[in-house]
Amino acid sequence: MVFGGVKKLKQSIKDAFERYSPKAIFLGTSCATGIIGEDMESVAAEAEDEIGIPVIPLACEGFRSKHWSTGFDATQHGILRKIVRKNPKKQEDLINVINLWGSDVFTPMLGELGLRVNYVVDLATVDDLAQLSEAAGTVGFCYTLSSYMAAALEQEFGVPEIKAPQPYGFAGTDAWIREIARVTHKEELAEAFIKKEHERIKPKLKELREKLKGVKGYVATGSAYAHGLITVLRELGVEVNGSLVFHHDPVYDSGDSKQDSLKFLIDNYDDVPSFSVSNRQQYQFYGLLKKTNPDFILIRHNGLAPLASRLGIPAAPLGDEHLAIGYDGMINLGEAVLDVLAHKKFHQDLKEHVKLPYTKWWLDQEDPYILAKKPEILNEKII
Predict the structure, then answer these.
(1) I want to staple 256 with a disulfide (CB 3.0 to 4.6 A). Which of 163, 182, 275, 317 is the partner?
(2) What is the pLDDT of residues 53-76, one digit of tens each?
(3) How far is CA 370 from CA 69, 247, 311, 365, in A?
(4) Does the reported pTM lie above 0.85?
């Protein structure tokens, strides 16, 4: 490691300001920065005084946490410290929507209630971030990546976090709309909107349910996102007897049970018999798919899709994470499933002409987590 990078950091901040004229500059720490103890806070404070814009140090060394999702918290902490207005002038028709990425399906929905959307953090301007403290409320998708900022906005600036189920399926979307309406005093508009949307999509939903009758699906995504997708698949009449989620948060920053998306799924749409929390290891995923034998999978991280293809199972990679949200989301996801099922023959042909990269011993195992439970088995000679 090269010690003493403060001088270069100061120069880099100056160069960035002169070249790009930004409204804010973020500093991200590496593991090396944390190990050698570089004083980024002092450098940031001095640079901020000199150039007159926020310079935000983010304590995001990899060893600070056991899970990648806390990187969201670190980023949001920096935004709250340095960019959000400390003496906000409230905008009673503004709702913060915190998410990772995806199309803006919220503006049309909340527009029906006479509300405007402040869509952050991805691709937001500095001005968008600054007005976070001025909103009438905050919603987030999913709670893993938004709950820190939402809880802090409520605690420090009096911006209420909308504590409701996520807007997936009829039950979740109805509850979400009604809670936003309660906080913003738009109850009458909300009920009219809910009634109109139910009537609008029911004919198309009935048609999709007929086409998807008897189909089995599997969901492999982040936790709260998976819970929402399973909800929508069950609204479509698709059997979901298995899911792999990449993490699980038993407690959210607000501590409110209304944000327990797994409980909401089970209470309203029944249990998921084969439900696993795992860090998406392919050799384990093989056993999970073999056990449930789905007709298709919904997946967020495409690295698992090739394995499913080798098993003859088509995968729908969901690049737009908002595809299934709201009333239209049920129609969107149903059509996406029909599209992927149209390619099932190709995947079945592929299965007949490829070989899996595992030993017969592993292919015969019933428990995909046997190596985690009994690591000593690796020391045995397997024939």
Answers:
(1) 163
(2) 999 999 888 777 777 777 888 899
(3) 27, 19, 21, 8
(4) yes
The 3-state DSSP class for residue 48 equals helix
3-state secondary structure of 33: helix
The two beta strands, 216-221 and 137-140, are unpaired
196 close to 149: Cβ distance less than 8 angstroms: no
Cross-sheet strand order for the sheet of 216-221: 274-277, 239-245, 216-221, 296-299, 315-317
Confidence of residue 383 (pLDDT cuts 50, 70, 90): very low
Nearest one of 146, 202, 198, 246 to 334, comparing CA atoms: 202
Question: Taking the CA of residue 116 as centre, how many other CA atoms within 13 Å lie in the half-sphere pointing to its CB?
Answer: 10
> What is the C-alpha separation between 283 and 289, in angstroms, rounded?
11
Q: Which two tokens stand for residue 13?
A: 């901040």
Task: Please give the Cα distance from 95 to 135 (Å, whole number).
Answer: 5
pLDDT, one tens digit per residue, over 203-252 is 999 999 999 999 999 999 888 889 999 999 999 999 999 999 987 877 66
Predicted confidence band of residue 29 (pLDDT cuts 50, 70, 90): confident
Angle at 106 between CA 302 and CA 237, to 5 degrees: 60
Residue 270 exposure: Cα atoms within 13 Å on the Cβ side: 12
Q: Residue 249: which residues within 8 A CB-CB, separation 6 or more? A: 143, 144, 223, 224
pLDDT value of residue 161: 94
Lowest mean pLDDT among 163-167, 268-272, 378-382: 378-382
Name which of 35-39, 194-198, 304-308 the model is least confident about.
Answer: 35-39
| Radius of gyration, alpha carbons of the chain | 24
- Asked whether the beta carbons of 91 and 135 are under 8 A apart, the reply is yes
Q: Which sign, positive or negative, has the C-alpha torsion 222, 68, 149, 49?
A: negative
Q: Which amino acid is at 5?
A: G
- CA–CA dist 373, 332 (Å, integer): 40
